[in-house]
Write a structure and sequence with these properties.
Blueprint lengths: L3 H13 L9 H18 L5 H35 L1
Pfam families: BMFP
Keywords: Cytoplasm, Ubiquinone biosynthesis
Family: Belongs to the UbiK family.
Length: 84
């Protein structure tokens, strides 16, 4: 679900932005940043792109069925009103 490559890139960017005096700690900082980022991202209530697309497809199909049913109801109401 969470791309480890992206987390590594973010940790590297944080590490690279350190002042030169702190570069010696960059490796340790990068690892700890990666761990913190992973832990925080795992706490988020997110779904994978694949899950999202599946649900989007289900919603589209449901909407199409609902529209078809609404059209049928409208047609039945017209027939009912015409017989009155």
């Amino acid at each position: 679900m969470i791309n480890p490559k992206k987390i590594e890139e973010m940790a590297k960017q944080l590490s690279d932005s350190l002042p030169s005096g702190l570069k010696q700690f960059a490796g340790e900082f990068e690892e700890r940043s990666k761990q913190v980022l992973q832990n925080q991202l795992l706490k988020l209530d997110m779904v994978s792109r694949e899950e999202f697309e599946v649900q989007q497809h289900v919603l589209l199909k449901t909407r199409e069925k609902l529209e078809a049913l609404q059209a049928q109801v409208n047609e039945l109401e017209k027939k009912l009103n015409a017989t009155d």
